[in-house]
Amino acid sequence: MIRITWALMRHSLPRLIAAGIAITVGTAFIAATLVGSTLIRDATYGAMLAEFKGADVVASGHYTPGSVVEVGDQPGVVEAVGRLDISGVASVQGREAWSAVTPVLPDGFTNAAVITGQLPRGAQEVALSANLMERLGATIGDELELNAELLGPHDPSEPWQPPAGVTADLRIVGELANPSPLAGPGSEVLVTQGTVDEWLASSSSPTVYGELLVVGAPGVAAEDIAAQVGQLNPDAVVQTATELAQARTADVTGQNAIFTALILAFAAVAMFVAAIVVTNTFQVIVAQRTRTLALLRATGATRTQVRRSVLMESTLLGVAASALGIGAGIGLAGIALAVLHRQDLRVPLPESISVTPIVVIVPLLTGALATWLAAIAPARAATRVAPVAALRPAEAPRVRRGSRGRLIAALALLVVGGGMVAAGPVVASTESLDPDTALFGGVALGVFGGVISFAGVMLGAIFVVAPLVRLLGRALGALGGGATLTLATANAARNPHRTSATTTALVIGVGLVTLMSTGAASAQASLDEVLDDFYPADVFVTSTNWADDGTTLPLSPTQRATVAESPDVSETTDVAEVVGALHGPAGQIDWFYLEAVDPTDAVAVLRREEVVAGLADDTILLSARTARELGVPDGGEISVAAADPAGGGTSEELTLRVVVTAAGDGGLITLGTAGALWGSAEPTSLWVRLADGVDQVKAIGALEAQLTELRAAGGSEPVPRVTGPAAERQSFEQVIDALLAIVVGLLAVAVVIALIGVANTLSLSVIERRRESAVLRAMGLTRGQLRAMLATEGVLLALVGAGAGAVLGMAYGWAGTAILLGQSEHVRLVAPWGHLGAIVVVAVVAGLLASVLPARSAARTPPVAALALD
Predict the structure, then answer these.
(1) What is the mean pLDDT of the chain?
(2) Is the pLDDT of residue 125 over 90?
(3) Burial code of 619-651, b = ≥16 C-beta within 10 A, e = fewer?
């Protein structure tokens, strides 16, 4: 039987190749995903270790200079260094950029690699990362002004202290390799430890380090050092650098794990659809081999041998196709790594891919098992071929219809699953629940409900697909189509079991594409509303100049005039940032940033006037979250006072009526209220409305350039920060579009695999209808009409599958959007009509293409030969 199996496989090679391609694609997805996940994890782990500058132990807590010395004196410790959170604005000839600021570490630690020049050694020396040098247009030897903020850890028992601001004039002595963006800011300003000590000495606040880096002596276990350091400060969190890197890698790659799971889910879908294709393929092969199998039975082959032959054939196909898929997946991962190495990613990528046993075993077993399982039903059908079938005309194929039990089970699954999906958004939007709990509960209901309800769809497809095909055929017949359309409709609906299996493959692929498209379109529309509320204007220009006590200094009149006179700007309004203390009926906030505006002027700038609705001198606008924290309802009253930066008290209080708003997350008061409490309210920022029709992203860049040139021309104030919803919206759109493109690309493969199934179904239909087609040809049906009938049949199947998938995908997409945005007040459900139209067009074209080979086979067979076969 082995030799016979090989011979049969060679004879059916074209069809086996089609099924093998489906398996190859699915296993390639799995292999590439597993390899890519490993690459991302290793790259992230390397970046996280680099963040700790070569330390063996990292402690997070409150450490004074004395406690740092105490740790350094412990046995087995070579060096201990405290770290502060320092950031600042670096300025070179009027050009400015924000960056992290760190000191040069002593021997035993790893400093940034020097590209040119040297590490700073003197108190007035500084080195910059390469990308920062490029942005500032700086070279070695240039003078640099640094305005930095020293932010230490906050003790909840003490009044909040604003960060201390320092200014230093430094000279650039070195250019450094860019730090990895995975480990924090993508740029770095490196100064000497002496410079940082001078800054700390000039600060009125006590020096408190939030993090401690410890290097151990050679041969001393990092775990032992961590235990010693932990005993000195029980309140601190002490970990070895390896443990902390692993934990942070897990945090960062949590999104990678989700993405990996997402792609593996699509690979599973592709494998499932491929299994359907394999089933249909072997059904075609068994139908073609009816006489061959009967002759084998007549010459002594048992049912077990025939069944074993079919299963052996499927297993060999699965193993061979899976091996090709593994090779293709590893090859794709290798190509991707080579491309990434040529990009300036500043991420420590591995030199080569790592092929672990799981990368080979999982796809191989998955592909072989899926193919073997898919061939069980055809193998059972092959054993039913009686030996006498080789000597008599083949009987008409038995039409399998759904049973009453199947119908009841399908309806039960649909009702239960659909109810869970409908309950998901309700649970996710329940305000009485913790937001994380509500979201988790909603997602769990949506996912499990979707799986259960879709199982009901698959189970009940046999009852629905054939009627849908007939309905579509009648609808098209009303527009004209004649006997060809009538015959195609009858043929497509003749075998509900096989037709439903084929359309199910299309429903899965098209449904998932539509789900992602609907979710992306709805998320984008909802995001636009959120941004419109959170960002009340097109652009914000905010001062980056601050006083010694950490409060923000106002914008200069020249800066405000430059913005107002920009050709891209239509209107501006002044905004003053102040810090207040809020006292409500059930809570208080001692340090809260408020924005003061003139509501009349603001209306001319805002895209949505509701942002300042109800704002007056005796009112304050607060977000719902802040109002809940204070325990005040809409229309209730709170007292507001000017907060003292030193934490020593507040000024006279005002009682204001609260207006709860969905806009933003802070609070709004009028300039009159700010003047009454703070004495004066100079504008620290501007709300800007751009002219209609301008490119908002380019307009923001133009404003930044104009303000930079103003500084370069002799301006005394730092360049303000320019932000806006246009930039945020573009960033989110890029993420959504990139994810959607990847997902649609992956799912398109499932659709292609499903279309192979349509071709197989038509081929099986051609085999079963050989005598019927011959009779039609004998009665005058031309070859062109026969081709048209099969093409119409393919289009009907494709349209029904695509239509059902689109409807289900849209419903699931809307449900998923409502669940994920359940806590938001802005949920818009949008239909991606453009994508749906493209799906219909693709379905029609694909149905036509799937019918080409079967139609060619049917048309080439002469009527006499087809009749003679029976």
Answers:
(1) 78
(2) yes
(3) bbbbbeebbbbbebeeeeebebbbbbbeeeebe
Q: For residue 686, what pLDDT band results from cuts at 50, 70 and 90?
A: very high
Count of alpha carbons within 13 Å of 28, Cβ hemisphere only?
A: 21
pTM assigned to the model: 0.57
Token pair recorded at residue 168: 């230093």
* Three-state secondary-structure class, residue 591: strand
What strands lie across the sheet with 77-83, from one edge to the other? 77-83, 209-216, 57-63, 237-240
Task: Give CA–CA dist 189/100, Å, rounded.
Answer: 6
Contacts for 276 with CB less than 8 Å, ≥ 6 apart? 374, 501, 502, 504, 505, 754, 757
> 122 near 201, Cβ under 8 Å?
no
Question: Do the Cβ atoms of 593 and 552 come closer than 8 Å?
Answer: no
The first and second tokens of residue 48, run together, are: 């996280």
Least confident of 344-348, 471-475, 665-669, 758-762: 344-348
Q: CA-CA distance, 427 to 418, in Å (whole number)?
A: 15
CA distance 555 to 577: 11
Give the pLDDT of residue 255.
47
Give me the phi and psi of 169, to 5 degrees please. Answer: -100, 120
Find the helix packing angle between 357-374 and 303-341, rounded to 10°.
Answer: 140
721-723 and 588-597 beta bridge pairing: unpaired
SS (H, E, C) 121-155: CCCCEEEEEHHHHHHHCCCCCCEEEEEEEEECCCC
Specify the pLDDT at position 748: 63
Residues 6+ apart with CB under 8 A from 392: none
Q: Please, what's the largest Cα pairwise distance for the chain?
A: 107
Name the β-bridge partners of 146.
90, 168
Helix (H) / strand (E) containing 167: strand 164-176
Residue 565: CB partners within 8 Å, gap ≥ 6?
none
Q: Quickly tell me which residue has 């509500």 as its tokens.
A: 438
Single-letter amino acid, residue 758 = V
> Helix (H, G, I), strand (E, B), or coil: what is residue 190?
strand
